[in-house]
Amino acid sequence: MNNSNVLLELFYSVILPVPRLAGVFFGFIYFSKQNIPAVVKTGIVISISLSLVPYIYADIDISEINDPVSLVSINFKEIILGIVMGVIFTIPFQILNLSGSLFDAFKGAQLPYSGAFLSGGEGTATSSLLGYYIVILMFTSGYFLEVIQYVLLSYKVWPIIDFYPVYDQSDISITFILLNELFSIAVLITAPVIIISILVDVCTLVIAKQLPQLNPTMLVMPVKAIIISGFMILLINKVDFIEYMDFDYYSTLVRKIIT
């Protein structure tokens, strides 16, 4: 092998891990554009990609990517794969975001949608609050390190130069399991608040039937919001969200997907 091929393989070993890592952080809600400067995200991606250079260099075959079409196809595949992985890793965030939206919907919040700092898009006030809570859990429970671990493992399971991973047909059902867990756990977290909201609505209906001139629906709205918000504080204080979301369970599902 001549020196030019060695330098070319080393060059590919440095740049080829970047698209997948960039896709992961692009799909990861917490690392959206509004939250972290591009310089910081670029530094994270480059730091992780440099740690992969020895492994990629030992596995790469320059003869398989000697034309521009193959190189572009590989980069496109890596970006799509990274985005999909990033979206999967944000399922716990989506659970609490959906729970916060349900909180505000059932307490009758007016115009609840506003800028959500963590998601970089729209969200309710409660979903933003719970978003901060899940970020704290992410860094204190080691979930972020789990994300990095599985991203690195994905390069072994699905090498850069391979267009198809090794998987069986049963792995496809994991996607539907994740979607089912997303909605079921979100409803489970908000179930007590939903019950209280329904009870308040029933009491309001009884009052409205007896004293319609008072317009009790508008009068009860602030009280309803205070009761549900106070109960939500108790829920955060007493309920172990890690038990509900079970980071180990989601880590197992992610491991099944990429292995």
From TrEMBL:
<feature type="transmembrane region" description="Helical">
    <location>
        <begin position="174"/>
        <end position="207"/>
    </location>
</feature>
<dbReference type="Pfam" id="PF01311">
    <property type="entry name" value="Bac_export_1"/>
</dbReference>
<keyword id="KW-0472">Membrane</keyword>
<keyword id="KW-0812">Transmembrane</keyword>
<feature type="transmembrane region" description="Helical">
    <location>
        <begin position="219"/>
        <end position="236"/>
    </location>
</feature>
<protein>
    <submittedName>
        <fullName>EscT/YscT/HrcT family type III secretion system export apparatus protein</fullName>
    </submittedName>
</protein>
<feature type="transmembrane region" description="Helical">
    <location>
        <begin position="38"/>
        <end position="58"/>
    </location>
</feature>
<comment type="similarity">
    <text>Belongs to the FliR/MopE/SpaR family.</text>
</comment>
<dbReference type="GO" id="GO:0006605">
    <property type="term" value="P:protein targeting"/>
</dbReference>
<keyword id="KW-1003">Cell membrane</keyword>
<dbReference type="GO" id="GO:0005886">
    <property type="term" value="C:plasma membrane"/>
</dbReference>
<keyword id="KW-1133">Transmembrane helix</keyword>
<feature type="transmembrane region" description="Helical">
    <location>
        <begin position="130"/>
        <end position="153"/>
    </location>
</feature>
<dbReference type="InterPro" id="IPR002010">
    <property type="entry name" value="T3SS_IM_R"/>
</dbReference>
<feature type="transmembrane region" description="Helical">
    <location>
        <begin position="79"/>
        <end position="96"/>
    </location>
</feature>
<feature type="transmembrane region" description="Helical">
    <location>
        <begin position="7"/>
        <end position="32"/>
    </location>
</feature>
